[in-house]
Known about the structure:
Elements: E1 4-5, H1 8-30, E2 35-41, H2 45-61, E3 64-70, H3 76-87, E4 94-97, H4 107-113, H5 125-133, H6 141-153, E5 161-165, H7 172-181, E6 185-189, H8 196-201, E7 205-208, E8 226-229, E9 233-234, E10 240-241, H9 246-249, E11 255-256, H10 263-282
Parallel strand pairs: 1-11, 2-3, 2-4, 5-6, 5-7, 7-8, 8-11
Antiparallel strand pairs: 9-10
The chain binds NADPH dihydro-nicotinamide-adenine-dinucleotide phosphate (NDP).
Amino acid sequence: xxxxxxxxxxxxxxxxxxxxxxxxxxxxxxxxxxxxxxxxxxxxxxxxxxxxxxxxxxxxxxxxxxxxxxxxxxxxxxxxxxxxxxxxxxxxxxxxxxxxxxxxxxxxxxxxxxxxxxxxxxxxxxxxxxxxxxxxxxxxxxxxxxxxxxxxxxxxxxxxxxxxxxxxxxxxxxxxxxxxxxxxxxxxxxxxxxxxxxxxxxxxxxxxxxxxxxxxxxxxxxxxxxxxxxxxxxxxxxxxxxxxxxxxxxxxxxxxxxxxxxxxxxxxxxxxxxxxxxxxxxxxxx
Length: 286
Ligand code: NDP
């Protein structure tokens, strides 16, 4: 039997409708609208599209998004000065710095400059530490969205064998922690993992976040497994594909998330949710 294809766009839309309602209630009772500042440095076209999509999603849900577009030769000091200014602005509840930054700017210094209580991407070491402890404030948007997908599937996470491919700070590691906190048995794979196929074949849940088109094939998947494709890869012909070989894996998996239309829309919905939660905290509702 072919896999169920997970409609991330539809779930994200349902979540966004709930967010819109909660934003309206917050505004009605307190006069506060959740504010998000998005900072884009340089002219990377993909980053520009991500920031534009995030702003459009904010506008639709009633959040206020402020875009700060800085030239590629912006100095680190100038960027840090802008972040300090936004940190102090009470109308802003969430700050995101779109990655990647130009090579002359140190990601780490910049991400650490964001006030932890406005760090809606959840990348600040304080928020990462809280996540490690199992008591998170902001959970990084992509892994948070994937947990919402797994819950929507009503998959049994407790006791499941989960394999996370990729160990980045923004996807792989927080993903593994979230699964661990829900009592999955988690294996994290990376570029040095030996016999990746046999590790993957043990998994009830596979999360692919490596950035290699069509890397995961049916032979690597246990019959009926849940396969979540995080990868976003642009092919030479312009097509957008994930890390999973969709056509072969759909014959083997129980559930499969497509690219596009799977994890991507969920990531944006979770950014809105984190910003709303931050504004609710600012008025003492949380
Ligand atoms: P990174 O490049 O930071 O990390 C990639 C990871 O994949 C690394 O841990 C790397 O291992 C591992 N890897 C690379 N090649 C292999 C291989 N052959 N076998 C096993 N592991 C391998 O990427 P990100 O985590 O930032 O992103 C991953 C993908 O997800 C990208 O395609 C990105 O565009 C996409 N993405 C999608 C989002 C969405 O909203 N849908 C959000 C964020 C990212 P090692 O550590 O050993 O180098």
